[in-house]
Design brief:
Mean pLDDT: 79
Distance between the termini: 63 Å
Largest sheet: 4 strands, antiparallel
Radius of gyration: 21 Å
Low-confidence stretches: 1-21
Structural class: alpha+beta
Helix content: 10-25%
Order of helices and strands: HEEEEEEEEE
Number of helices: 1
Shape: elongated
Length: 114
Amino acid sequence: MKRKLLFFASVAALLMLLLTGCPNGPKSFTLTITTSPDTALQITIDLVNQQTPFSQKYVEGTNVNVQVTSPQERDGSAFVVGNDTKYTFQQWNDSNNSNPRNFTVNGNLICPQK
């Protein structure tokens, strides 16, 4: 009985380590990109087209290239035929207006765009 219990405890510990990651291994953080005043706007993350809000985990120290497609047009009104709303990139929440922009992921980042 003691051997079975030890075996199951070892398997459980191994599974927990596999599921949670090694505590001394590389850290991962989440990069989140949001847009304001609207969502579902087009952005490019490392040359891959995405939509906002965008959120993905990266290993600490990863450089990520983010570009907001600008301008973007949408049909926002049921009363006007065709595209009637235009979105133009202005700046990031830290007033930086670089587009595209590189971020180094060293902690959880939330990067709203205005």
